[in-house]
Amino acid sequence: MNRIKTFFLLSLLTVLMVLMGNAIGGKSGMMLAFLMASAMNFFSYWFSDKIVLKMYGAREVSADDAPLFHGMIARLAERAGLPMPRVYIIPDPSPNAFATGRNPHHAAVAATEGILRILSPEELEGVMAHELAHVRNRDILVGTIAATFAGAISMLGNMLQWGAMLGAGRNDDEDKGVGSMVGSLAMAIIAPLAAMLIQMAVSRSREYLADASGAAICGNPRALANALRKLHSTSLLLPMADARPATAHLFIVNPLTGGSLLSLFSTHPPMEDRIARLEAMGL
Is 60 one of the catalytic residues? Predict the structure, then answer.
């Protein structure tokens, strides 16, 4: 169901971008904005792992540096049918973890010092199984595609807004010109917002899927549920000091804090729902 929902949401982004291109009045502007967004996201796709790991000061560890943690990842990767990813530890007391890399053969998993400290071995195994599920499900690729479309739509919105304002003076005496200007400005504002919400929905769907896949990999849904409960409460008290909105979707729990209004724009599903789904899977 989550895969179908993700496909549907990506299709909505495609339709929204086509509508924006038509509103601008031709294919040239649409193609230019799409190519610019694709170029940015192509760079992000190929180098995002290095960028985000450096951004959070992650340190790669070997089996000698962290034998228990490294061995856990090796066992889970074998169980998931994945190549051994690179393993990193982030020097941050806030408990969290993420996976990155453009495909299973170029993947990395990272955990904060905080999460290694507060979780039991079973709970930590559930968390890292969740991250390996992201790798196996190619969620980074899906997220990049969604970001490409959302970025292109945002650029098209800017083009449409400027086009409507600059074209207003030539059509002041025509009712349809004024109506077209108002409609273009409305689409320039609404479409990028809609694209952002759809992108967030894609990310939420992939989190539900990674929870289910991760529980299957580790074989202990309740351990993952307990880990999420513990991570959620602790991260609210001890949020990541250097967390950035652009990378929030990577983490197993949202590293950013905010009220109920901001939850509308969260890349993560409600924690209660995630825990309830895992507990419903049984032991």
Answer: no
